[in-house]
Specification:
Length: 312
């Protein structure tokens, strides 16, 4: 039986919706009232899944409110959709065409619903994002203070730096409390910390940005993060493997932390020495270490989830 999909092209002001199979198209305002009309439009056409691209936040309100209205939704990668459209011969770009391509992409890939995160997951992610922003702001303001020419200007930076530090400490406390209050997060927190070099912020980033950890096999979790070397072979040619896509935030923190972990872990240290001795480029070595660390954390998370399941 053919499923009915609705592709929605999102922008700050509008939601352009196209139903496939069929010809139905409509434009709605990207606000609560417009989204309610979009939900009615989807119900009238018996849509089984609404699909939107990740557009930097313009899709979030529609995604949340449609789920609350009982309309299943999924978020997909805009780059994949665009390449699919080009393969179909669509070189031009309009909102209406984009909605059409999104719907056909969803249909060809038979995309599945991606339910919204629960309130605690959403709150944790928001807190982690804000803490990361404050950390970046702290670095910038310290650099600017260092470049200031006199004490009067430096004192203005001192006030800002003190405020950032206070807010950072408060957010760190809220994140720690949120993790402690959740049975799964609590046991994962203790499990991840058994790897020396993995500390508070790394754990929080993993909880917030990689909630699937421990539920996927090693190959799938590596691909999800973007740490799986992708084949590039053709005929007798064995091309150079590379990584791309995935969750850049998780990948970047793992690359950074893996360098710390290998100072304490003999097996990672030996792995680092062997790759270096083989003449591998520095970035290749760093990525390989991050991949090893991710696989280890994924295995530990899988064991922790099983342990929790056996005690409940």
């Amino acid at each position: 039986m053919t499923k009915t999909f609705c592709g929605v092209d999102t922008s700050k002001q509008y939601l352009d919706a196209r139903i496939v199979p069929g010809e139905a198209f409509a434009r709605f305002a990207n606000d609560a009232a417009g989204i309610a009309k979009l939900a009615t439009f989807c119900v009238q056409h018996k849509v089984e899944l609404v699909v939107m691209e990740a557009t930097g936040g313009f899709e979030r309100l529609a995604f949340t409110l449609l789920w609350e209205a009982g309309v299943a939704c999924a978020i997909t990668n805009p780059r994949s959709v665009r390449r699919y459209g080009e393969a179909m011969g669509f070189l031009e770009k309009t909102d209406r065409i984009d909605a059409f391509i999104i719907a056909h992409f969803a249909r060809s890939k038979d995309l599945k619903p991606t339910p919204p995160a629960n309130k605690n997951q959403s709150r944790l992610k928001s807190l982690v994002v804000r803490l990361r922003q404050l950390t970046d702001d702290l670095v910038v303001n310290k650099q600017r203070r260092h470049q200031a020419q006199n004490d009067e200007i430096r004192s203005t930076f001192d006030e800002i730096i003190a405020l950032i530090k206070r807010q950072s400490r408060r957010l760190e406390g809220e994140i720690a409390s949120l993790i402690d209050d959740d049975p799964l997060w609590g046991i994962l927190d203790k499990t991840f910390r058994t790897v020396k070099g993995v500390a508070d912020r790394t754990v929080a980033r993993l909880m917030a940005e990689l909630p699937e950890i421990g539920t996927y096999d090693n190959k799938a979790i590596s691909k999800l993060v973007g740490l799986a070397p992708l084949a590039n072979d053709s005929g007798k040619r064995n091309g150079k493997r590379s990584i791309r896509g995935g969750r850049s935030g998780v990948r970047s923190i793992l690359v950074l932390v893996a360098g710390t972990v290998r100072r304490y872990d003999p097996s990672l240290a030996d792995f680092h020495r062997r790759l270096t001795a083989a003449g591998k480029p520095k970035m290749v070595v760093r990525v390989a270490l991050a991949h090893k660390l991710l696989v280890r954390l994924n295995a530990k998370a899988r064991e922790a989830r099983a342990q929790l399941a056996n005690t409940t």
